[in-house]
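Hi W., the PRP complex you wanted:
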Amino acid sequence: MIPTVQSVLISESQIEKRVHELGQQISKDYDDSDLVLVCVLKGAIMFFADLIRTLAVPARYEFVQLASYHNDTKSSGVQMIQGLYQDLFRADVLIVEDIVDTGMTLELLLNHVGSFEPTSIKVCSLLDKPDRREVPVSIDYLGFEIPNTFVVGYGLDYAQHYRNLPYIGVLDGEGLR
Ligand code: PRP
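Structure:
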């Protein structure tokens, strides 16, 4: 059974405001750069689509797909489903994630992107759940730090459901993290 959404953690208007602030900061920092945004599918799709439209720089973008949770709520190891093919040599890469949890997905992706020898690699994540961190990774542009609760919406899922919600909601379910 799919648990119901218990409450709204971050509203649509809060997300919109923060995405614009991040877009302004990124535009400032990457003025005059060869910026390549890398969207991490599937979760980051909504954040990515909104963020890129706030940017005032002529950015390129690419997609990668990694999955660790599959249809479960516990990670069973990160798998790269679709890697990068474009030449990122000497580019300024900005990885765009929906959430950093254990940090394992990001760690694998940083190594993958690094193998293309870009000039710089930074990370932008809408959400950070620091209580769950298992590997040290840093986030350069962060939307919101959140507590250790199971969140869905705005791209984030529970067993592939709820990605379509326009806000970040907390699921009603004991033991869900
Ligand atoms: C989620 C999320 C991040 C990752 C974060 O992806 O989108 O990529 O988990 O978790 P971590 O820090 O513990 O690695 P998921 O594997 O659920 O795939 P999805 O993006 O297709 O939902």
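The CA atoms of residues 57 and 63 lie 19 Å apart.

W.
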